[in-house]
Amino acid sequence: MKKLLVIGFLLTLCTVSQAQLIRGYGLKVGGTIAHQAWDYTGQGSIPDADGKTGFNIGGFIEFLDIPTLSIVGEVNYVQKKAEQSINIIDANETFQSGNDYLNLSALAKMRFSMVVVAPYIIAGPKADFSLKSYELKIPDNFKKARLGFKVGAGTEVDLKIIHLLAEFIYDYDVNNLYEGNNLKIKSNSFDFRLGIYL
Question: What is the mean pLDDT of residues 120-139?
Fold first, then answer.
């Protein structure tokens, strides 16, 4: 009996919380273009890596159902890739580098609601945790965890039978992707995503 009461209480609490706090939830999918800025202080020079398009997909929950402001919590799988050409013994060698990440974000979202569409701006902190590395020809690995922030803009489209969104996000890493051997690598990326509220 106690177990049934506890389960009933938790279900009631979740229902009340969802009605008051959760505006919606859903999925986002899109592409990521990463950029790596290489600061090399040794002999010669190394150009920045060219961005390559990766894939991103994830889920989100949007909290605070008030007219203009909400908080979006996200969990994403993100591929950040780049291609580099380095001269090694008078021969250019090209290889890809990058990481697949588990990305966690907490973003403030301000909406400007209209009849069918609601343009918005979005910004907040994020953390990336490496799941898989595409290694450079340097001794140490990329950093496994990085902090940063995201800022972007998008729009929601409410067609009554389906609620969609499209957005463009700039993702900046505060700490270096790599540091050592006269080389520091900073990274940032651009995400373009389409989403659906479930």
Answer: 83
Structure token pair of residue 195: 């989403």
Share of the chain above pLDDT 70, in %: 77
Average pLDDT over residues 124-148: 79
Q: What is the mean pLDDT of residues 143-164?
A: 94
Average pLDDT, the chain: 82
Residue 30 neighbours by CB distance under 10 Å: 20
In this prediction the pTM is 0.80
Kindly report the three-state secondary structure assignment for every residue of the chain.
Answer: CHHHHHHHHHHHHHHHHHHHHEEEEEEEEEEEEEEEEEEECCCCCCCCEEEEEEEEEEEEEEECCCCCEEEEEEEEEEEEEEEEEEECCCCEEEEEEEEEEEEEEEEEEEECCCCCEEEEEEEEEEEEEEEEEECCCCCCCCCCEEEEEEEEEEEEEECCCCEEEEEEEEEEECCCCEEECCEEEEEEEEEEEEEEEC
With b for 16 or more beta-carbon neighbours within 10 A and e for fewer, the 39-57 pattern comes to eeeeeeebeebbbbebebe
